[in-house]
Every structure is written in structure tokens, then in C-alpha cells.
Amino acid sequence: MTRWLWIFAAAFAFCTTMAHAQSGVDATLSWLPPDSYENGDALDPAVDLTGYGVFMNGVQVATAPNSASSFLVLDLPFGDNAFYITSIATNGLESVMSNVAVRTVVDDRVPNPPTLIDVILAWIKRIFGWFA
User: Fold this and answer.
1) 116 in helix, strand or coil?
2) Do residues 85 and 29 lie in contact, with contact meaning Cβ atoms separated by under 8 Å?
3) Going from the N-terminus, what domains does the chain have, and what CATH number goes with each?
4) 44-51: long-range contacts at Cβ-Cβ below 8 A with a sequence spacing of 24 or more?
5) Element (H, E) at 122
6) CA Rg, the chain, in Å?
7) How far apart are CA 37 and CA 91, in angstroms?
8) Distances from the Cα of 65 to the Cαs of 29, 41, 61, 115, in angstroms?
9) 99 neighbors 84 (Cβ within 8 angstroms)
10) pTM strictly above 0.70
């Protein structure tokens, strides 16, 4: 009986930690294509760039084609989300990052009341101290 309870509790804890809240809030990033290199030489985005790196919270989330001037990031996480863009040249070099844009997604969800399984697990934790 004890082994079954432990397996059930571990499986339930795994299932609850794997569920991530989704905000349903999107962000559209827009930019103007560069027209020169950092040294001042002329740049043609259609010829000289392979695309744009799209970054959210310091992590590259996508690469947009060189013909793009906007990108849609779906289902942002709750909290502050910082975005920036880089240009990627055909030689593989990447520009410095653009200005940072921040989009805040407020978590205004109302928590659900505890279920019977929550009450049972809390009881097991309190009585046996298994999940301390």
C-alpha cells in the first residue's frame, strides 16, 4: 500500500509541475531594415542579409527571413518580456542587438479552489512528512 501511494503521489506531482500557464497574449515586433553596415558602407537587406535573429528574454526564439520587417511571438509568458532583433549577414556575422522593447503580461487569473486530491496530498504530507 505504501509503495502504491508513493508512485501515485510522484506521478501526480510530475503531472502538476508539467502544466504551464499560458497567457494567450501575443507580441508583434516591427523593425526597419538596415541600410548600411556599422562602418557606413551601403547594405542591401535582400542581398547582404540572410535574416534577422528574434530574441526574447535573452534567448533566440526564431530567425526571420531577410524580407521580413515584423514578427509575431505567440503566447508570451506572464511577467516582463524583453525583445530585441539582430541582423544576420550572408557571411554569418551578426549585428549588435537593436533597442530593447519590453512587453509586460499581467497574471490576473483567479486560482482554482483545492481539489479532493490536493486535500488528500496535503494530509499525507502533514501526517507522514513525505513531501517536506
Assistant:
1) helix
2) yes
3) 21-110 (2.60.40.10)
4) 45/87, 47/90, 48/89, 48/90, 49/87, 49/88, 49/89, 49/90, 50/88, 50/89, 50/90, 51/88
5) helix 116-128
6) 24
7) 13
8) 14, 22, 13, 47
9) yes
10) no
| pLDDT band for position 19 (cuts 50, 70, 90) | very low
Q: Which residues contact 22 (CB under 8 A, 6 or more apart)?
A: 75
Instruction: For 9-49, give the secondary structure using H, E and C.
Output: HHHHHHHHHHCCCCCCCCEEEECCCCCECCCCCECCHHHHE
The answer to whether residues 60 and 85 touch, using CB atoms and an 8 Å cutoff, is no
With beta carbons less than 8 A apart as the criterion, state whether 106 and 76 touch. no
Find where cell 502544466 sits: 19
Position 81 pLDDT exceeds 90? yes
Average confidence score pLDDT of the chain: 81
> What is d(CA 64, CA 71) in angstroms, rounded to the nearest whole number?
7
Grid coordinates standing for 122?
496535503
C-alpha cell at 60: 533566440
The 10 Å Cβ neighbour count of residue 19 is: 7
